[in-house]
Amino acid sequence: MTAVMPRPVSAPPSPEPRVRQPRSLLVWLAGAALLILLAGSILAASAVGASGLGPAHVLQSISHHLGIDPVGLPRLDDAIIWDIRLPRVITAALVGAALALSGAVMQTLTGNPLADPYLLGSSSGAALGAVSVLLLGVGLVLPVAAFLGAMLALAGALALTGRAAARGSTRIVLAGIAVAQICSAATSFVIFSAAQGDSYREVLAWLMGSLGGADWASLAVAGPIIVAAGLILIGYARTLDAFAFGDGLAASLGVATGPTRLILLGLVALLTGSAVAVSGAIGFLGLTLPHAVRFLTGPGHARLLPVLAPAGAIFLIWTDTAARTVLAPEEVPVGILTALIGAPVFCFLLWRQRRAA
Predict the structure, then answer these.
(1) Are 285 and 96 in contact (CB under 8 A)?
(2) Are the C-beta atoms of 124 and 118 separated by less than 8 Å?
(3) How far is the C-alpha of 222 from the C-alpha of 261, rounded, in Å?
(4) 332's torsion region: left (phi>0), alpha (psi -120 to 50) or beta?
(5) Residue 167 domain flag
(6) Is there a contact between 62 and 86 (Cβ–Cβ < 8 Å)?
(7) Do the beta carbons of residue 97 and residue 317 sit within 8 Å?
(8) pTM for this entry
(9) Which domain, by its residues, includes 170?
(10) Residue 84 and residue 159: Cα distance in Å, rounded?
(11) Model confidence over 105-150: pLDDT tens digits?
(12) How far is CA 295 from the centre of its chain?
């Protein structure tokens, strides 16, 4: 009997592979576009106001102070741009970037998507330092006092946590809450016992978040710290990816989880303390913006952080511009607007996540 071999069945032609643009390339293009948009936002926001100046005047003022243009603007116009608007806009950019980066890192280190930059009580400590200067006449410059208060709050939270801080225990969250409540109670007591008249209004505006007091002197104190700490955090992007999968995997990849976690917490405290020192407590930015940007970049920190920093800077520049113009000549604390924008956005993100689940 002769075996009959089956005829081979030809496989259907495979479809043409679709050419897909690498996501990382798209993310880097988005980051470059955001940097260009950031530069344009600084120029445009510095021109917004009742004086009738434009971005060309801002460029002329900057070039004059850099020694490029020997003539410059009339003295009053130059003072409006160089002494009032430009330091405020640059401060808003740095604070927005600092809070956005801090929020993303805290969410990764704690494994808590609801974590924000103020989780360790730094904002409450900074508020206590600032209120002490405003009401009690403590012999320190306000940004310096606020920064020292934020650092002392962090030290208190770490002292309460002990060795558990290096292991990422939930005790660090509880310690941050305890320190924040202690500092808030002390701040309330100082306000109740010493605030009078206009001083109460000044303190209230600072506690709600305000960039009205930004100048070149405060920017010289906080700016270098924010830039240096932010760049170092971005350099830890791959390490943060390892932390996102748990300490066990991070350790298997060669990460010294305990010391590295403390270094990252210290960098976050430097960023947050410096930001709060010049702007007060601006809420919801560090909580919602990292989640929103992750929809574009994905969870990888090497893509997330370089896009998140300019996105936070642009967001706070225009939010603060709206805060100083929407009810002009009165000024709305920028923390109110960030909460009005951030809370609905956060609710939408939660709703979308629930639908996806």
Answers:
(1) yes
(2) yes
(3) 23
(4) beta
(5) yes
(6) yes
(7) no
(8) 0.86
(9) 91-351
(10) 40
(11) 999 988 888 888 888 888 888 888 888 887 877 667 777 888 888 8
(12) 18
